[in-house]
Amino acid sequence: MSYTYEYPRPALTVDGVIFGYDSNERDLRVLLILRSGEPYRNYWALPGGFVEMDEDLDTAALRELQEETGLHNIFLEQLYTFGAPDRDPRGRVVSVAYYALISLNDSQPLQADSDAQDARWFSIDQLPPLAFDHADILQLALLRLQGKIRYMPIGFELLPEKFPLSQLQHLYETILKGTFEKRNFRKKILSLNILTELDETQQGVPHRAARLYSFDPKKYEQLVKNSFDFKLDLERKRKPAQN
Amino acid sequence: MSYTYEYPRPALTVDGVIFGYDSNERDLRVLLILRSGEPYRNYWALPGGFVEMDEDLDTAALRELQEETGLHNIFLEQLYTFGAPDRDPRGRVVSVAYYALISLNDSQPLQADSDAQDARWFSIDQLPPLAFDHADILQLALLRLQGKIRYMPIGFELLPEKFPLSQLQHLYETILKGTFEKRNFRKKILSLNILTELDETQQGVPHRAARLYSFDPKKYEQLVKNSFDFKLDLERKRKPAQN
DNA sequence: TCAAAAGTGTTTCTGCTACACCCATGC
DNA sequence: GCATGGGTGTAGCAGAAACACTTTTGA
To answer: pTM for the whole thing?
Structure first.
């Protein structure tokens, strides 16, 4: 039997890119932790930590996520594993990166109870310098989000459970950094038939209140079963007719 | 300074799903190794091994790949990291899985020099029982391949450098388990303008010889720069008109 | 001359794009 | 009554789907 302990082992951590979306500000943010120890003291970093010996990777990522946000039932998906030998000056540390999606409008306290560390949401385009290779991780997570939102119904994870269509549109526009034509966007989304139209409207807006919708996973399952396409391209503006 | 060696560390390995495509047989295959030791003695397994302490993950995967195939310049991409605590009965082993794509027609000896171990190509739908969670890994790799080939030009990695369009079509049909209409397929591929039409034709075929093409990465770069879409959907058969 | 695959053009239809106006509400 | 966003219908067009025949070659 060839046992494994003859080999020196890298340390194994999980890091999380926790995306939060603020519907009011139309702002996509990331949760970062201010490091209090060396190395990279006083740099901001992705939340993360060591994987326990008897713990699944997903579980470890989930645990870290809950420690930082106190939230449950969060969308969490493995992103990529980073293992450059010099990524941590203390020694060999391989990190399995995850990304998570949450809404910043579900009246959450946004608790940063993470044992007195300083935790903050940073707008995706006003990021501070990051520790380690965390800028790379964040960059990859953003690309993944941008790619995946176009063909998988993960955008809803960033919204409150009930939302008007305009908020969904703003979300797509914020993440994909583009614009959609209102009528076409609504038509497309509604034609997918994955939303439930609610008997509720927005409250307290200084104009006509919009109807609220919610995402219906069951309808989505149906869609997948019938092998329909969820797909959403940015409208690539056709050349305007010349005249 | 909080050092890391207080934490027990999982062992870290890389495993590779090495896809090979045989154009003649129109067959997608995977390279497997027969295990000679416990556990899972006499089971087939994905090639893999431990990550060295000063070695990048990609490098480790590449090294394993070359040890098994003797090939260089191979398409290789990280797939997913598997870390269920019980996936290896010997103890905690976390494995970073990669997948690779090669052509089985480039007149390669298909050397399995891997230190006298038994290595074989298995057709993707005649797989033997696999060791560990390797069936899961393989399954995920296949899904990834099927997904990615539709919007990234990775299919060419599975073909000889020069190929007729029909071979490309067969490749897509084999991987996606569907059929394309010949004229539409050619039109679509050629309209992408990522192929170079060669002044050569097939040799030794018992019928009209087809013109050969080669993939042109430079043309593809252009395509990407102009943000065109590489995209290839299976034709979702429209209902035939009723009459 | 036959078998086997290469190669090609056109019509039909779907779904994306583009576009402008009225509606409801709060202030 | 006005400002603000909510909400809708339609025409045009690009591109996907559907379809059948001729050409070349080797055996």
So the answer is: 0.92
